[in-house]
Every structure is written in C-alpha cells, then in structure tokens.
Amino acid sequence: MRDFSEIYADFSPVAGAGQSSRCAQCGVPFCQTGCPLQNNIPDWLRLAAEGRAEEAWRQSAATSTMPEICGRICPQDRLCEGACTLEQSGWETVTIGSVERWLGDMAFEHGWVEPIRPRVERGQSVGIVGAGPAGMAAADRLRSAGYAVTIYDRHDRAGGLLMYGIPGFKLEKHVVQRRLDRLAEGGVRFRLGVDVGGDLPFGEVRAAHDAVLVATGVYQARRLTAPGCGSTGVIAALDYLIASNRKGLGDAVAAFDSGALDASGKRVVVIGGGDTAMDCVRTAVRQGATSVTCLYRRDRDNMPGSAREFANAEEEGVVFEWLAAPRAVLGEADRVTGVRGQRMALAAQSADGRWSVEPLPGGEFDLAADLVIEALGFEPEDMPGLFAEPDLALTEWRTIRTAGHTKATTLEGVFAAGDIVRGASLVVWAVKDGQDAAAEIDAWLSGRERAAA
C-alpha cells in the first residue's frame, strides 16, 4: 500500500514446482476450457512440476503471445482457476496464474524468449491501428510470419491500457516494455503520437498497407447524469488512472501536480463495481487518500469485477457501499463536498443472470467526498465518422461489425479485433482476438497472393 510495485512475489523454484504438482491432471481439463486462449494448462503444469521449466514455458507461449502478462492480470477466479476441479471439489484451486507469471518471468531472465526472426520476408505489409493488447498480439504473430508491420497509436508510448490503464501494483511497466522492445527489435515499426482519423486520415493508412487491423479498444467513458456531475472534482476513471501511471513513468502531469487528479489527502468516492473501479480505489489508497469508498448499485455477489481484486481492495481499507446508486453530487460548481446515494434492492433476474435493481423508499444517504471518480464503463467512439468511412458497418452497440465468426469488416482488407468488436472486455480476450485476426489476415493475404500468381 506504500508504493505502486506489484504486490505478488514470484515463486521460488521449489514452491513453483510444488504448486504445479497439485494439478490433478484431469481427463477433461476444465481449466483449459475456462481459458479464452485454450492454454494447455495441465501440460505445462506437469512439466513445471517435473522441473522442466523451459519446456513448460514454451508450452504456455505456444498459445499466448504474452503469458507473463495474462498471468498477472487475468481474473483467474472467473476463468481457469474458477473451473479447476480442485476448486470445484473444495480443495482450493491450483494457482495457475501465478505459475504462468513465474514461468514467463523466468523465460526473460534466462533468455528463453527469442527475438522475432521470420524465416522469410513476405513482401506484404499490415497496418495495425492501436498498440494495446490486441494490436500487440497480432503484431507478434504477423511479424513472425514475415509481414512488415506498422503499429499506429495516439499515445506517446505503446501498450494501450497495459501501459496507461492498469496500475503498476498489478502490472509493472517494465513487464509491458520488454514485450514492446521484442516487437521493435523484431522489425515491428511503431508510429506513436499519431491520431488515425485525426492528423492521419484512415484512408492513407489503408493505402499504405496490404491489410489493416483496427484494434483501437473502447475508451469513451460513460459519464454520470446525476445533478452536480459537472462540478470540479468529478473525474473520469481513465483520466485518473492515466495521470497516475504517467507520474509513475516519470512524466510531468500538470493535472496531477495541481491536485485535480491526485487523491492525496482527499475523501474519495468511486462509482462502479468493475475492475476499473477496483483499480481506482486501490490507486487512491496508495496516493494517500484519507478515505476511499466504492459505491455500487448491486450487491457483492453481482459485482462484475474480479473477486480477487475486491478482496485486495477490502484488505487495503476500501469501504464498499453495496446496493447503492448515486442520486446527486453535492457541493458547488467549483468544489465537490459529497455524494447523495440511494439504497437499492435487487428486483428481477434477466436471462443472462444479471439482476435489475429498484430504489428503496426513504433510502437516501450522504457520503462526504472531495473527489468523485466515475468508473461506469466504456463505449466505442464513432468509428465510421472518425475514419471517414461511412461503409464501415457497426452493431447495435456501436462496435465494429464483423462477418460471422471472422474478423473481417465491411471494408475490403480491413479487419477488427479486441474491444472495438466485442465491447469492453478482458485483456485475455483481446490477446485471443489479436492472435485470431493475425491468422485470418495471413490466410487472406496468402489467398490474394496465390490468386495473383
């Protein structure tokens, strides 16, 4: 809680092998089916248990372009570890994520992570818009296949939310940077500080490459609509997290230095119950907030964020107000003094298992606050308007529409992957989408090459 270093330590070799040996080697590996990447988890756990760490890492890297990152930030309690047979039978899960992280870090330390050296240069190029996890995963696979790859990103550093959105206590930035360095050393070109659709027209990107992958993510924040939400002291979660991460990277951040995006000495209320809300409350604790409260309209069992993240936040002193929704932000235009909340009750369960809520009569209450952080989720930007491509079709949720189960958009040679297709989701799904998109782009370009021949 005193700094932004990662809170989990790596295994010793004996402890790592011991934890790996707990795997029951099930005939039907539910952990694997619970993983979006379908990682061969029992295989690399067995190898790690036998002391064959390099072979174990190569098994994990065969299906994932960034296993040491996913091992850190995946909500394993909802994925592989939640599906573990030991967990289901009451014996506590094998801690798959921590083993994956341990193997990945060992791979970099011992030089097992090899540079990208394509066997042959294909003579075709792919442009990737967005340097986040989907773009990074696609670039890794495409460059390995011999394509010239250029990644465009509006930020001054690559990595997307891995670099600027996720706090260092979950993912230290050198872990991301070494993956980016591997891409650059392998020949991937980065054009940073470039706003595709702004200072660089999307049409120019299409003209410069044989295929284009859109992997921009979704970063348009949902905002409060309650009275007083426009007051000074009401801020968006991503603005807050980016400022904190930039300070950690040594940047000058005027809005942080002025106190606008710094929780130090303030009473903080975070509105939302997802992983972004957990990142905000735990960041505020480390910045020295006098109190941190999380306001969420459903109960603990229906919180969308990781149970592990919630447990960590609670241990760090965060107070949770369950079944509570914001009704108004209190104070003046230039200063927030509190949040007026409304007690809620679960009403009815929908087909997807989510409960609707309804207000309890007479359930109003006030919370003191100097800083209110909105962590209500994210929506896509207007991609057809931004790219000046009216033929780029969208879904009813304004994400990019792709054909069937493919990554192909309605623009020839343009593919899309990650959150801009599926909506705000997990990093591991972005990695899977990026890898799948790379395979599809490779097949499409190879087909065109054969047809031209």
From TrEMBL:
Protein name as catalogued: Oxidoreductase
FAD/NAD(P)-binding domain sequence ranges: 126-434
Limits of the Dihydroprymidine dehydrogenase domain: 2-111
